[in-house]
Design brief:
Elements (H helix, E strand, L loop, with lengths): L7 E6 L7 H4 L13 H21 L3 E6 L16 E3 L5 E3 L13 H7 L8 E3 L12 H4 L1 E3 L4 E5 L6 H11 L2 E5 L2 E4 L2 E4 L7 E3 L3 E4 L7 H13 L3 E4 L2 H5 L6 E4 L5 E6 H6 L2 H8 L3 E5 L2 H7 L8 E2 L6
Parallel strand pairs: 1-2, 4-5, 7-8, 12-13, 15-16
Antiparallel strand pairs: 1-17, 3-4, 6-7, 9-10, 11-12, 14-15
Length: 311
């Protein structure tokens, strides 16, 4: 484990995965699957989830898996990085969620279970912002440069300034904000999560600069990444649509760096991008197409990084 990347991640095995209508209102990546029954959707999602976990474990990544519960219904529980983050000082942060049924994903029993393995200190709960209809969805909203204490955030209905500033004041981070958009039926509308169009590793950043319409915001982001010695690897709008921005760098066995993504993301990359990413770790990809299509999230969303000190 380093300040920026870790060997240990937490994942939630779905109990009843399906397309969440409450999140589809502003997640334009979600698509319905009319040809599949709910049972078929769940079976596909489970198979893809288990295969992904197996690949990670084979590479020496320490994966802690918790089972989702059937009741209450939490169709997006497979994306735990939105409700919780874990930090090197033993602290845990909980986040305000846009969709009401996603708020049910916050589970004390998961935190209690982790206490047997990790030294957990303060739990900082930002979920009170929900009462003011203000949202900040964990490391979906926040791209945390933990080394340099910078929080990158694309402002949207799920990433709002007031809870963002609250987080930065409390955790002692500096916010770098911008507006990232995608074209939906001829309109430029906000991308729902920062981690759809950006990934941050130890020494690199993958960014879909084409999604940032404001030249000033674009330049400020470039400048900050340069100041913090991150190699900028740009991806196109088309590649972003294949979740090429939704990657995560992790530590495998013998401290090997891995750059983890979905198979859709990998196959969208060109040889130059693959070469540049490979300088930062061996690429590991897994087919999670059902999860991507119905959930509107990808590999990075499924992995909550655990930086807690071990007991």
């Amino acid at each position: 484990m380093t300040d920026q990347i870790t060997n240990h991640i937490m994942m939630i095995r779905p109990a009843a995965f399906y397309m969440n209508e409450q999140t589809a209102v502003n997640n334009y990546y979600q698509q319905s699957e009319a040809d599949m029954s709910l049972e078929e959707v769940q079976n596909h999602a489970l198979q893809q989830f288990d295969s992904f976990v197996d690949k990670l474990r084979q590479e020496g990544v320490d994966v802690t898996v918790f089972d989702d519960t059937v009741d209450p219904s939490t169709p997006d529980s497979i994306f735990p990085n939105n409700w919780i983050s874990f930090h090197q000082d033993g602290s845990i942060r909980l986040y305000p969620m846009y969709a009401e049924n996603r708020r049910l994903e916050r589970r004390e029993d998961i935190i209690d279970s982790l206490r047997s393995k990790f030294a957990i200190g303060e739990i900082v709960n930002f979920s009170h912002w929900e009462e003011k209809a203000a949202y900040l969805e964990g490391t979906g909203s926040l791209l945390l440069d933990r080394q340099n204490k910078v929080a990158y955030a694309a402002i949207s209905e799920r990433t709002m300034l007031d809870p963002l500033n609250d987080f930065c004041d409390e955790a002692d981070f500096k916010a770098i904000t911008f507006h990232a958009n995608q074209t939906v039926e001829g309109q430029r509308l906000p991308i729902y999560h920062t981690n759809v169009m950006m990934c941050l590793g130890e020494r690199f950043a993958v960014v879909c600069m084409d999604s940032i319409d404001d030249d000033g915001e674009k330049e400020r982001l470039r400048r900050k990444l340069g100041e913090t010695n991150k190699e900028l690897i740009e991806i196109s709008d088309t590649q972003k649509e294949q979740f090429a921005g939704n990657m995560l760098q992790v530590v495998g066995k013998d401290e090997e760096r891995l750059v983890v993504m979905s198979s859709a993301a990998f196959h969208s990359l060109d040889s130059s991008q693959i070469d540049r990413l490979s300088n930062h770790g061996r690429i590991l990809h897994s087919d999670i197409h059902t999860i991507e299509k119905l959930g509107g999230g990808s590999a990075r969303c499924m992995m909550a990084e655990v930086f807690l000190p071990k007991r």
